[in-house]
Amino acid sequence: MAKYMDVHYGMNGITAxxxxxxxxxxxxxxxxxxxxxxxAWADPASGTVYCLSEAPSADAVKRIHDRTGHPxxxxxxxxxxx
Length: 82
What we know:
Elements: E1 2-8, H1 16-29, E2 36-43, E3 48-55, H2 58-67, E4 74-77
Antiparallel strand pairs: 1-3, 1-4, 2-3
């Protein structure tokens, strides 16, 4: 499976608790699309949230985020990691 980094904008002021709750919502249904959300990061000042996942496709990631109410603005494949 491939890795993806998706980016959410407009989440200004997001707290650690809100980020955790959003991440847990994704984790709760990720298996239905064979996705695994590995980690999430946030910058409350800019309102930017990043999510790293492993998934069969970008569309599978999109479907999970859409269902949990967290549509992203961008998604990027991550073909190389060290």
